[in-house]
Design a protein that fits this description.
The protein is mainly alpha-helical. The protein is 68% helix and 4% strand. The longest helix has 38 residues. The model has no long low-confidence stretch (mean pLDDT 81).
Length: 105
């Protein structure tokens, strides 16, 4: 039972880390274009739709980047983070590894 709880806790941590990275890297990139155009008075009632399209386009590129960087790779099999993969790391090092690379769980 302890092993199941331990594995579940690390899975939840990696899932939350992945969702947070998605929000920060994808939604944040698209929102930066939208908000930046507002701050610098580039967006107004006449060009709001063009700014929205630019924001969506940047969001799509950010999502593609997110998928490329976070998709598990063949070479991610175990020996990157220690002799037995992330399981061989102490808790602080493992938390850092899992939050930086959620699929290394």
């Amino acid at each position: 039972l302890g092993n199941i709880l331990y594995t579940t806790a690390w899975f939840l941590l990696s899932f939350v880390a992945l969702i947070l990275r998605l929000v920060l890297e994808v939604v944040g990139g698209a929102g930066a274009i939208w908000g930046g155009s507002e701050v610098f008075y580039l967006r107004n009632a006449e060009n709001a739709e063009q700014c929205r399209a630019a924001s969506i386009a940047v969001g799509v590129f950010c999502f593609i980047r997110f998928v490329v960087l976070n998709a598990p790779q063949h070479e991610d099999e175990g020996d990157i983070l220690g002799p037995a993969g992330p399981w061989s790391l102490r808790v602080p090092a493992r938390m850092r590894a899992v939050t930086e690379h959620p699929f290394h769980l």
